[in-house]
Amino acid sequence: MQLNTNYSNVNDSYLFSTVAKKVAAYQAAHPEKKVLRLGIGDVTLPLAPAVIAALHAAVDEMGKKETFRGYGPEQGYPFLKEAIASYYAERGVQLKNDEIFVSDGAKSDLGNILDIFSKDNVVLVPDPVYPVYVDTNVMAGRKIIYANANAENGFLPMPDYSVNADIIYICSPNNPTGAAYTKAQLKEWVNYANAKGAIILYDAAYECFIKDDALARSIYQVEGAKTCAIEFCSFSKMAGFTGTRCGYTVVPEDIVKDGLSANKMWLRRQTTKFNGVPYIVQRAAAAVFTPEGREQIAQNLAYYEENAKVIAGTLRALGVWFTGGEHSPYIWFKCPNGMKSWEFFDYLLKEAQVVGTPGAGFGVNGEGFFRLTAFGSKEVTAEAMERIKNLLSK
Ligand code: MLT
Predict the structure, then answer these.
(1) Per-residue confidence at 276, pLDDT binned at 50, 70, 90?
(2) Ligand 1 centre and the CA of 139: distance in Å?
């Protein structure tokens, strides 16, 4: 037997596990201190009433012989796929039901999709980036190259035709920087991918925070994307499903290479390795798209947007450089006094008992930066920013 030696090339621990371990150690040593967590982007508001009602109703169905369900379709029940298709149609994107695959979340699909691509593909990843894109490819032994995202390009790198890439990751609005591509900018990436015969793996998990029409909510709002892009989305941030687990991936039928269809391969992969999302969870997800669900979820998103404003306002008043927060639940800022990311993490934890995520954990270009999330409660966010203000204005 041989183990996959590529695993020796990934960090021992996933970024958010490392942060959690450090915080747990600090809390164990200082049980009297109240630690405020704005690190991992985990939601704090409960599921919307419309979602809870749908869950209850579905649970009742599962308890009756006539309405009980066993295995469902691996790619999702039609009622949820139709609701997702209507959501896309609102912004002018027409999807066929067979192009939508319901899953237990974007993170799983972003990792699993790699099953259908050759190990020999060169992967282009922006730096800094959500660590899952890098780690999953390192585990598979693929070559990774980076596109520099930095303060000069507003953390939105654009394609460079002298670079050859096969698989391109784009996350917009971006995790961790909060920067979001306009449709015109994304068009350049789509042109590049089509010209190179590359695929874009587009992570739209934060699309629900976009309010500006010029910004893309889906890559399929850009002409030409259906021949070169797979889109991943999730109910986690949109509707508080981080613990409930539901997402979806769109694999257009037009992605064909050497006679092989990415859509058919993904279907084959999913039907072989996945048995679908629980019926009750899919009913809960479908409720997100009902008029009541939409209204309730808009209120939750507005709550997080208020938090983002509080964080941004404090940083602005302190004269700290930052991006994000406007079309994103993340605020990405320069560590004060030239501190390194982990140095600032330790300083903030020790001096103010506030937890954030060190930018360096997202890539080399993240060094010297720090991420705060707007997904905390209103009270925790206000208190954390008060503590940060007091600490940094000393
Ligand atoms: C984050 O904090 O970056 C996210 O919560 C991670 C995720 O969505 O998996």
Answers:
(1) very high
(2) 19
The end-to-end CA distance of the chain, in Å, is 58
Q: Among all chains, which residue has been given the structure tokens 């290479």?
A: 257
Residue 371 CA: distances (Å) to CA of 86, 134, 167, 232, 238:
34, 19, 26, 22, 20
Ligand 1 atom nearest the C-alpha of 130 is 3
**What Cα–Cα distance (Å) separates residue 135 from each residue in 107, 143, 367?**
12, 12, 18
Neighbouring C-beta atoms of residue 7, cutoff 10 Å? 12
What is the C-alpha separation between 110 and 233, in angstroms, rounded?
Answer: 10
d(CA 19, ligand 1 centre) in Å:
12
Minimal-distance CA residue to ligand 1 atom 9? 107
Q: Decide: pTM greater than 0.90.
A: yes
Alpha-carbon distance 97 to 94, whole Å? 10
The pLDDT of residue 376: 97
CA distance 390 to 394: 6
Instruction: Decide if pLDDT at 13 tops 90.
Output: no
Domains and CATH numbers, the chain: 5-47+292-392 (3.90.1150.10), 49-290 (3.40.640.10)
Tokens read off for 271: 């039907």
Cβ atoms 146, 125 nearer than 8 A: yes
Mean pLDDT of 85-99: 97
- Position 94: which residue type? Q
| Sign of the Cα pseudo-torsion (363, 371, 357, 200, in order) | negative
pLDDT at 231 > cutoff 90: yes
- Please give the Cα distance from 99 to 85 (Å, whole number): 9
Nearest CA to ligand 1 atom 8: 41
Query: Over pLDDT 90: what percentage of the chain?
Result: 98
159-183 pLDDT per residue, tens: 999 999 999 999 999 999 999 999 9
For ligand 1, which residues put their CB under 6 angstroms from it? Answer: 40-42, 107, 130, 175
Among residues of the chain, what percentage have pLDDT more than 70?
100
What does the longest C-alpha to C-alpha distance in the chain come to? 67
Nearest-CA neighbor of 331 among 389, 383, 297, 381?
A: 381
